[in-house]
Every structure is written in C-alpha cells, then in structure tokens.
Amino acid sequence: MIKFAWIVYGKMLSEQLSIMNLSSILKSKGIDTVLIYSNKKRDILNKVKAVKPDIIAYSLMYGSHWKYVDISKEIREKYPHIYQVAGGPYTTFYPQSIDELSLDAIAIGEADISLVNFIEGFQGGSPSIEHARGFHFRMNGGIKRGELQNLQDELDELPFPDRKIFYDQDPFLKNQEFKCFLSGRGCPFPCTYCFNHKFNDMYKGKGKIMRKKSVDYFVEEIKETKESYGLQFAIFEDDIFVMKKDWLEEFARKFKQKIGIPYICYVRADIVDEDRLKLLKESGCHIVRMAIETGNEVLRNTILKRNMKDATIIAASDLIHKYGMKLSVSNMIGLPTETLDALEDTLSLNIRCRPDHPTAQFFMPYPDMELSKIAVKTGHFTEERLKEIPKNTWRYTPLLFDKKTKRVMEKTQKIFSLVVRYPHIKKYTKLFFLLPDQLLYLISIVTKIAIVVNYFPPTKVTFMQKLRGLRRFFSFYG
C-alpha cells in the first residue's frame, strides 16, 4: 500500500481546508494519509524518517513556499527514493515551481479527481503516463505535461473535510471557538489581482465554474463538526457567500433551525441588497466582510476591473450597519500607478464606510495574475523581483515607487486600521510617521488584536486558549 504524507511547516492560525478536503477524498478511496506538521524543520525531518512515506505532498501559496525550499531539498538528499509533489495556487500559476522546490511533480488546478488517479497509477516509485492528467512531472530527463483534469461538478459527492488529520496533532485548532467552511467554489468576476480570472480561463469547457453544495449537505457538514469538535461561531470562506439568493433563503431557514450559532461571511458590495441582508441577519450572521480594495474609482475600475462606484460601496456599508451586523473591509496599498492622492481616497472612503474592522495589506504581484503583468508594464515591478515577494503582506510593498511615495505608503499601511477606526487620530499622522518602522509595525499588530477583541461574536474561551492564540498570532505575523 502507498504511504502518502502531507507536510505543513509552521503552526497555523486556522485549518488548511485544501489538505482536509483532499485527505478525506483519498481516505474515501482507501488511500491512507498522514500529516507531518511542526514549527521545526528538525521535527519534520525526524517524522519523515519515522513515517517512511512513498509520496510527500505540499499545498502552497506563492510567498509562503519559500520556507519549504530547504526542506524539500534536504528530503531529496537524505531520501532520494521519496516522491515529492506539490499543489495549490503556487504550482498552478507558477509551473517553474517544479524546479524551485525539489519536486518530482506538480498539480495544476483542482485535484479532487486527479490526485486519486495519480496515486492509484503510482507504480515502481513513479506515476504511469496514463495517470498524468492534472499534473506535470519529471520523466526521462524532461517534464511531462499532463492535460487539465475536468472539475468536480457535484460537490455533494465529496466527503466532508478530514478535520481529524489536523485536530489530532493541534489541540489549538481543535479547541478554537471557530471553524472554517466552504459552501461552494468559484467566482465569476474578473478582478485582476485575484487568481479566479485566470482559473476561469483555464477551465472553460471543463466543468461548472460556479458550484455550490446543497443546503442540506452544507448544514449537515457544519452540524457534524459542531458535535464532534465544538463550534461557537463559523467562518464561511466563500469569495461571495450571498451569490445565489434562492440558496441563501433555504440556508437561512435551515441553519437557524439546526445550527443556531453566529457566523461570518463575505459579500460583494454590488450584490448587497435589503433582501439578502435580512436573510443574513435572521440566520445569525454577525460579521459581513467586504472588499473595498481602493478608494480611487479610476484605479478600482480600470486597473482592478472591479466595476464598482464609491456610491455602491457606501450604500452597501450603510445597509450592513442598518441591519445591525458588524462590517469588516479589506483594502490594498501599493497598487500599480497608485499615487498618494489615491491612497488618501482610500482612507477617506473607508472612514465614510465606518467599518468595525478595517484592514489594508500590500498588493503582492503573484505570478501569472493580470495585475502582476500590469505592474511589469507600468514599470512598478520586474519578474526578477519575484523572489522578493514575502509571505507577510503587512510589512512592505515589493513594488517600485519613488522614495517618498514608498515611505508614505508603508507608514500609512501600519496606522491604517487605527486611523479608519478612530478618524480623529488622522490629524496626528505626521507624528506617527516620525516613529521607526518596527515600532509602527508593532502598533499595527496591537491595533489588530484590540479591534478583534470587540469584533468577533462573544464566546466562552479559556484563558490558556486565548494565550495560545495570542502567541500563535505573534509568531505568524512577527
């Protein structure tokens, strides 16, 4: 029997749904999987030695992949017989990844079907050619490029995520008052900074881009998680939770009856209306998260392709406040062609929207995204600088700006949440700018913690669990 192991390097703030989903699929097909999970490279290598897997897999985003480079190379040196494969947005949109890590194969796109076929075709220490769909892999000194596997259209046919694989090794995640869920997959909008537009182009004619679990299936998934592990509130990670109004109507009724806990979800301002917000409120929605991205309409609609006016964003924010739900907004700083005037527009629009939880991260030009290509064309980025993209999107911009613009952007980002949440502080901006960057970064972290304390739904959490959460937060963003 094939021994298959996931490696996750670094303790997490929340579950990694991609691994949990794929692990449950593999187990449903009789393929046993284990998780090798630690903050320490030595521990991971010792566990690899103990487990003796035939295949090691990584699920990666660009930027977070850097710390896996040394691990994969050391595994290759010590255990050359172990087959190493990676998947996720990193490999899908950056096929050079097969050489950047010491990989034998990379998964392209969703792997619900292709990973099972890949493992079932694994013979003599390598996959057979007929099972190459959805993967690129090394073969005879070159790279064999497999065709893209069709999408899994019916999500109800998949087993519930394998939460046990993480919770057995990480009591913090198991005991966390919230758990994360996905009710569906896909986003039809062409936002240039997101991988979805590229994903949609890839999968034309290969299945349904927009897919949703049935309400009964989704509610049962949440119910089982609540009964098995405890659940005080849920976070629904869908890009746009409220897309299908008829689905939302059924969900609102059944979730309230069978689950009855607060939840957090994502919306898009131009899909927010009175009917949807009533359903969210009645069913227990506590926090609505919405992307503003930039307060400058030209940037938002020509560069980002958001096709959304300021008035639409303001109206959606006012409606969310009207129905008594808390509002969380996200923004990006350091966009290609962004000016300091545009940055001021972002501050002003956010202040007008009165969010309970405002955030602003630096734009990261991930490979193959349309906005990354725009950044190259406008002279704000070069492909050679890809190696400078950090995992942490809160510290600095990797784009090229003049010295003054870069300085103001990076310092503004550090006090963004504080100024938007407490606008009267804005008049002290110049004083904040005199502080060293490291102190400003610390202020931004403390601000995040202070805001979140009064932002999440009220829960019963032990002091030790809070302490563990704080420690993990600082280790993640430190």
Structure description:
This protein is α/β, with parallel strands linked by helices. The protein is built from 20 helices and 17 strands. It has helices at 17-28, 41-51, 66-78, 89-93, 97-100, 114-120, 164-167, 171-175, 196-202, 215-229, 245-258, 274-283, 297-303, 310-322, 340-353, 370-377, 403-421, 429-433, 437-453, 463-477, and strands at residues 4-9, 33-38, 55-59, 83-87, 105-107, 122-123, 126-127, 135-139, 142-145, 178-181, 184-185, 211-212, 233-236, 263-267, 285-293, 326-333, 357-362. It has a seven-stranded mixed sheet, with helices on both faces. Helix 12 links the parallel strand 14 and strand 15 (285-293). The longest helix has 19 residues, at 403-421. It is globular and about 65 Å long. 38% of the residues are buried. The mean pLDDT is 93.
